[in-house]
Amino acid sequence: MGSSIIIEKSDKTSISAVDYKNLGFGKVFTDHLFEVDYVNGQWQTPKIVPFHNLSLHPATSFIHYGQTIFEGLKAFKDINGDILVFRPKTNWARMNKSAERVCMPTIPEEIFIQGLEALLKIDEAWFPKEAGTSMYIRPFMFSMDAEIRVRPSDTYKFMIIISPSGAYYSEPVKVTVEKHYVRASNGGLGFAKTAANYAASLLPAKKAVENGYHQLIWTDSKEHKYIEEAGTMNFMFVINGKLITPQLSDSILDGVTRDSIIQLAKDMGVSVEERKVSVEEVVDALKNGTLQDAFGAGTAATVSHIIQIANEGVDYHLPPVAQRDFSNKVADLLNNIKLGLAPDPHNWIHKIKL
Ligand code: COI
After folding, report:
1. What is the pLDDT of residues 281-311, one digit of tens each?
2. Are residues 199 and 132 in the same domain?
3. Are residues 110 and 45 part of one domain?
4. What is the DSSP letter of 40?
5. Which of 64, 73, 240, 296 has the smallest CB count inside 10 Å?
6. Ligand 1 centroid, distance to 83 Cα (angstroms)
7. pTM
8. Which residue range forms the structural domain that includes residue 228?
9. Residues with Cβ within 8 Å of residue 244, at least 6 apart in sequence
10. Ligand 1 pocket residues where CB is under 6 Å
11. Which residue's CA is minimally distant from atom 6 of ligand 1?
């Protein structure tokens, strides 16, 4: 495919209007986007075109029935100015798992990879340079049939937009254990990166914010006994020197950062347990001082230290961030691998030479 991407360059740029010192997360977009349509059972010719709004028929099916999926990944520039994308093939594979769950066509690897390569290259001047920033990449697909009946669409659009971004959480995170609302249940959509999971989180997350927390810890839908994830990130704990994280299931997202941290922990000789983690176990560890570290792991969130956990109206305070051995070490290592400053033993970096 590669050379068959049609490229229509923008004749103007809005880069001079960007305040690179105050990017925020996912608010600024570059001059171009990538798009390709799925029609008559086939992906059509992909294009890179000037960034534009969408014009949609009011009956477009994803607006009504949520047949839409997305991914999130990050790219950086190394000291030579080459572009380093972190594990894009893992995101591509996960996007296709999401696609299958919500009855959408899968995306060929070359469309996904060559599309993001071409887009990152054409807008390479937009990469932020400040520490802690990245080029956030948002691939997404949605159903396009204009019809009110509930059925899988015949037509789809896959797009990639990119956003120079700062941190998702700008401070250590306070969370509260959610025991009423449910993000996902067995047999549902929880492992898929689809809009419904995020819609389910909005009201409870808003209530959590009103009560002074940044996020929720979702628990299982049957008993509200076991920890699942945060919706914006997976959860990890260090208890008695062991890295403990909820095992994957059909209600938990298979996070790329989660997987990377588990691998790096094993490389460091840290023992790792992927298993059911009960709220009770975490509360006991908080009470008896064996909980040494807790953090969220996600592409947008990277490694987000948890500073406070509330359960049933009681706030538990965690050790100061500066004292956290594992999360600080792994965050630095992961960051250095992403920036090309540390060896990449697992071949996670996809380099794009300019
Ligand atoms: C990501 O981490 O890339 C996500 O898509 C999560 C979203 C809440 C920003």
Report:
1. 999 999 999 999 999 999 999 999 999 999 9
2. no
3. yes
4. T
5. 240
6. 21
7. 0.96
8. 173-338
9. 236, 237, 238, 272, 273, 275, 277
10. 72, 232, 298-300
11. 232
Here the tokens at position 336 are: 């250095």
Contact present, 192 and 101 (Cβ < 8 Å): yes
192-248 per-position pLDDT tens digit? 999 999 999 999 999 999 999 999 999 999 999 999 999 899 999 999 999 999 999
Asked whether residue 145 falls in the same domain as residue 48, the answer is yes
Residue 294 lies in a domain: yes
Residue 39 covered by a domain: yes
Q: What is the CATH number of the domain that holds 215?
A: 3.20.10.10
Tell me, yes or no, whether 347 lies in a domain. Answer: no
Q: How far is CA 260 from CA 57, 101, 168, 231, 266, in A?
A: 41, 24, 19, 18, 10
Longest pairwise C-alpha distance within the chain: 63
Q: Which residue is listed with tokens 């993001």?
A: 116
CA atoms within 13 A on the CB side of 74: 25
Of all protein residues, the one whose alpha carbon is nearest to atom 5 of ligand 1 is 72
pLDDT greater than 60 at residue 348: yes
Taking the alpha carbons of 206, 208, 213, 219 in that order, is the dihedral positive or negative?
negative
- Number of the ligand 1 atom closest to the C-alpha atom of 26: 9
Task: Give yes or no: residues 111 and 251 share one domain.
Answer: no
Hunting for tokens 């740029």 — which residue is that? 13
